[in-house]
């Protein structure tokens, strides 16, 4: 009887009727409570259902998926797909816990606001209880992934999930004792250089065509096959820098430098990411470290020259110039954000997956505001002044605001700092003079 009920549930799953399928799997479980595949399949339904939900209902389905995944692995420790289902459920629940950290009593609003002004904030989740809960789920996900791949190396979802965890700065790799007596796959055992190079070739072609989002996707697939390849990390760093996703670019660049300490180009990638984050002094130090390895690399020499120009400015001007550059990158892009918000079902910001929107449409803002743009319609965290829905510009307004040349931004940065500081304003760098305006007054 359980077999026929399972067949009905399988057919419903294939038709994407996940709710009905979950109900049928539940009935089959009552008929055969020791069948691990029924729990594993219902866990898959739970994850599919949760993907389109929010709030308590989403949490309920995600927790059901984790519970079913645990049951499947308990009943059949040698079934790789059961571990894979548990890994995906845990990772999804961890992501939701972080997304909803703002709802918790220990949410640190001051820390969240302060992080928006930091070039490389050390934290992106501002609730300790949420951090701890998410960390536990991420650890369980990694353990399940590695157990699954030790049993079945063809489970691509587990490779992809391990790649996500490796790219998560808040995740700490699982120690050997976390695996107990069960076998698990190490990074060295998982290396598949042939598969990685195939994805890399596609990434290289996309990058050459300036399709940076597509290239990043291919390099990510390559890293799922070979996480120890410094060049793959460096190439993805370059993609992310082109997409203005500088924090991700810095993570990849630092990993590349750690994997191959003698490779000067990795130091160049570190410097380029730091430059994009506005940490010009650290970018110059990275350029110097790279030049010590290869003094003739053109990209490093160019980066050093560019950084030296920035570090010759007073730190207050550097900070203001970076702020203006971030604002300048946003020009011409807000129309896409406004359109996506206005066309969302229900015409309300609560209906929009803000984090996904930012990653796909405005990766520069996804970088500036980890976890999305909160504060809209009761969403978490609070927006900076001027970022509310009422302040999103129309297409016509954006067309009237083209990007400003960098030289003009530098002048404006100096003028803004002088206006704020008055007589205490820093002097211009050596060899530079203020221009004379039409009214005879000196300009920045």
TrEMBL record:
Region (Disordered): 421-444
Gene3D superfamilies: Tetratricopeptide repeat domain
SMART domains membership: TPR
Keyword Plastid: no
Repeat in keyword set: yes
Keywords from the UniProt entry: Repeat, TPR repeat
Taxonomy, superkingdom: Eukaryota
UniProt-listed PANTHER family: OS06G0159400 PROTEIN, TPR REPEAT CONTAINING PROTEIN
Protein name, entry field: Stress-induced-phosphoprotein
Species of provenance: Aureococcus anophagefferens (Harmful bloom alga)
């Amino acid at each position: 009887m359980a077999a026929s009920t399972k067949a009905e549930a399988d057919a419903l799953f294939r038709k994407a009727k996940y709710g009905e399928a979950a109900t049928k799997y539940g009935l089959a479980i009552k008929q055969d409570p020791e069948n691990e595949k029924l729990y594993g399949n219902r866990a898959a339904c739970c994850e599919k259902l949760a993907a389109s939900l929010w709030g308590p209902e989403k949490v309920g389905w995600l927790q059901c998926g984790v519970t079913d995944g645990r049951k499947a692995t308990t009943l059949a420790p040698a079934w790789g797909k059961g571990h894979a289902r548990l890994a995906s459920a845990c990772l999804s629940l961890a992501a939701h816990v972080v997304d909803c950290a703002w709802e918790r009593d220990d949410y640190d609003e001051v820390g969240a606001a302060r992080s928006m002004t930091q070039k490389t904030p050390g934290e992106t989740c501002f609730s300790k209880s949420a951090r701890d809960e998410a960390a536990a789920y991420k650890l369980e996900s990694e353990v399940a992934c590695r157990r699954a791949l030790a049993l079945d190396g063809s489970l691509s979802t587990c490779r992809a999930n391990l790649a996500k965890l490796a790219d998560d700065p808040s995740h700490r790799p699982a120690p050997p004792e976390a695996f107990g007596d069960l076998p698990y796959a190490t990074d060295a055992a998982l290396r598949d250089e042939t598969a990685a190079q195939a994805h890399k070739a596609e990434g290289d072609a996309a990058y050459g065509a300036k399709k940076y989002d597509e290239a990043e996707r291919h390099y990510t697939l390559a890293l799922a096959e070979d996480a120890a390849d410094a060049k793959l990390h460096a190439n993805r760093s370059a993609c992310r820098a082109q997409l203005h996703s500088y924090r991700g670019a810095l993570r990849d660049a630092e990993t590349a430098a750690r994997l191959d300490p003698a490779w000067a180009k990795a130091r160049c990638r570190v410097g380029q990411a730091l430059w994009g984050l506005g940490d010009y002094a650290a970018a110059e130090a990275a350029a110097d470290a790279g030049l010590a390895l290869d003094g003739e690399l053109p990209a490093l020499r160019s980066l050093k020259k560019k950084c030296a120009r920035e570090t010759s400015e007073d730190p207050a001007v550097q900070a203001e110039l970076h702020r203006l550059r971030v604002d300048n990158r946003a020009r011409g892009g807000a129309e896409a954000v406004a359109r996506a918000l206005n066309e969302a079902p229900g015409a309300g910001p609560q209906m929009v997956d803000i984090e996904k929107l930012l990653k796909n449409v405005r990766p520069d803002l996804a970088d500036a505001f980890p976890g999305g743009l909160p504060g809209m319609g009761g969403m978490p965290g609070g927006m900076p002044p001027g970022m509310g829905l009422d302040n999103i510009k129309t297409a016509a307004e954006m067309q009237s605001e083209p990007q400003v040349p960098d030289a003009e931004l530098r002048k404006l940065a100096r003028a803004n700092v002088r206006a704020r500081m008055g007589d205490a304003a820093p002097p211009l760098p050596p060899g530079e003079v203020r221009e004379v305006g039409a009214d005879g007054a000196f300009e920045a």
